[in-house]
Amino acid sequence: MKKLFSLTISAALLLAPFAYTINAPALKLTVDAVSAASEEAPAPAATAKPAAKPTAKPTPKATAKPTAKPTPKATEKPAATPKATVKPAATAKPAATVKPAATVKPAATVKPAANVKPAATAKATSKPVATAKPVTVKENVYKDGVYVAYGNAYSKGTEGAKVTIKDGKIADLELMRTSPKLIDRNVRDNYSGVWAAYSLMKDKLLGKTRDGAAAVDAVSGATRTSNGWKLSIDRAFARALEVKPADATYFAGDHMGIDPEGKYAVFASYDENSLTAVKLYPLTAAGDFVDEKTYTAEQTAAIAAITPALLAKGSSAQAVPGYEVESRAAINAFWDAEQNAVINNTSAYVDGFYSSYGTARSVGVEKADIVIRNGKLVDVKLYRLGTNLIDRGATAYAEVVKANAPMTAKLLANGSYIANYDEKVDGISGATESSHGWNQAVERAFDKALKVPSEGQYFDGKFAGVDNQSKIMLLVDIEADEVTGLTLSLFGTDGKLIADAKLTAEQKALADQLKAGLLDKGTALADVTGQEALSAAARAALTDALVNASKVQGEYKDGTFTAYGDAYDKGTNKADVTLRNGKIVNVVLSRVGMNMVDLGKAAYAEVQKAIPQLTASFLAAGTREGVQQVDAVSGATSSSNALKAAVDRAYGKAEVEEAHKAAYFNGIFIGASTDKSVNVMVTVKNNVPVAMLVYYLDANGKVKTPEYLTAAQLAVKSEIESTSTGNSLHKYGYKAAAFGANDAEKAVSAKAVEAIKAALEAAGK
């Protein structure tokens, strides 16, 4: 008999972002000039004009409303207790997106048409129109939902915003600053003047109407980026209009697009109703623009041949004879730019990061992390998980490891999952089962991104679940939100599953009892007397399986994240934290010296004693919040607190959507040069590196005293330390480079810069 379990979703609110106070000059979108000193990249020629907005109250369309995405919360979710006859329950059900049942299936990816002969004559380039202040529009003309839009593009990428609109106001907001490949990048990879602007602008913009957002002042030092975010938000509101403007099809300005394979970037300039100019740029393997001065003859010829076709026919252009592969990539890139430009963007998906699983088996399962933009797959990472549901990496079957890269390339070339997957045609030889699992995982990730959710809370199929301490593995069959079958396996002390034939009579009886209890009571399973630990593991494994089957995207990425506690002049504490569904499934704690090498038995006796105790306690706690409740080990209080901070920072790195976007964690961090001879300690306040101290180390990693330092070492130390203010950004806190009055100083400073970069990487979010 089928048993149902109910699923509840809850989460605690993360700490509010640090509040800043600044005096920023007023900015109006009608101002086109930007101070050359305000940001690193040059400003675009003009700012795009927002689309005109109707003032009359429109008639709502009959289409289903997109579901608004609640504010992501970085804290762990408490377990729900399902009953025997209700739908499946999940302890760690992600709270990032709550999707009600609907009947919409994932929309197939729209490919650009390629059947029109290109025209030979290019149109004249026209300058985008300057931005005008949005017209006042009644709040109720906007449809609630999540909308993504981008500002004007330039060589460094562009600004973007994912805006949750509710009742005509900004209910939630993620600000983006993209790479040239149009994927949001780490804050610290941007110009330093932008770092503080994320939180400042978000705080100002939350709760604002369209007009209110347009009136927000820019952040001093990040004028162009602030302007880009405001423009992105205005365009998001335009896309949310119940009735789109009749006199405008496009957002006037420069729009950028990239083909999913990352071969070409297109800059398409539009006025309100037509394409005015096209520029085509080849990309490097790293996703950067190829320098025009280094174009090959083939690249120059391809650009000259394809650009007129794009200008004449856009995404309907035919492939240019002799340049079929290049044409296909360029047309796909143009299509992407066109989708960014069109006001009525009809993509069925919400742009962003999504993750899901394929069909589970007793030997493991495939998993995919993807990034979607305009309904297209623009980034994908494929994994093969073992029976403990941790990525096997290079230790997976050789044929599966070999299949990863070609399958990744095939999915990117398709721009989506393969809708009618055929293992003989679409699978990679020698790994057809894994190929199918990866394709299925990508398909399910697309389903999670739907604006109008598909029906049901869970995907149909077989899903694996493992408790976070790898004691029990479940394979759970789900159909129509019902658990229709379940198998339970026990792990041995060697970390491998015990074959059924090798179970003792006692183990087999326990496994049967736990299985029957799970089918009857779900995660409300009562403890088996004398087997409380395995009973808890069984409940956790079922929770894990249900979360893996869920159609809701979690708030943390899976994987291993390394972070550090605060450092001092003897070293620091390190945590390598492996997460799955927001739960700690493995943690390695260590005490490292000033050379960043694990001290092992050379660490203080109290710390050596504390590390295994804390490791067990952190695994037992299992969550971000739970770890912070763990008591410090007597005699090692400072290290205990530092390791707890390191785990919390690891969670911060794993956030899908950062609650507080910043370049660095606040605290004290160290890094060492490649040869371990120089250590630099960096203090971060208000998420900005403000002070640095330099230490020189001997062969044993011990700090040298001043009398043993050379003149060059003293000079470099003085230069770096004397430029610390303790408040504003340190001189070498952004793009540090070697310096010196002579060769000796330059050699020492080069090593010091290596240490600075290592310390900043340790501090980085």
Task: Give a verbal description of the structure.
It is globular and about 75 Å long. The protein is 28% helix and 18% strand. The longest helix is centred in the last third of the chain and has 21 residues, at 743-763. It is an alpha+beta fold. Helix 6 packs across helix 8 (432-448). The protein has a three-stranded antiparallel β-sheet with strand order 1-2-3. A three-stranded antiparallel β-sheet has the order 4-5-6. It has a three-stranded antiparallel β-sheet with strand order 7-8-9. The two termini are 49 Å apart. Mean pLDDT is 85; it is low at 1-38 and 40-132.
Physical arrangement of strands within the biggest beta sheet: 1-2-3
Q: Portion of residues in helices? A: 25-40%
**Count of helices?**
15
Report the average pLDDT across residues. 85
Largest sheet: 3 strands, antiparallel
Number of strands: 18
Segments where pLDDT lies below 50 for 5+ residues? Answer: 1-38, 40-132
Radius of gyration: 28 Å
| Gap between N and C termini | 49 Å
Strand content: 15-25%
State the shape.
globular
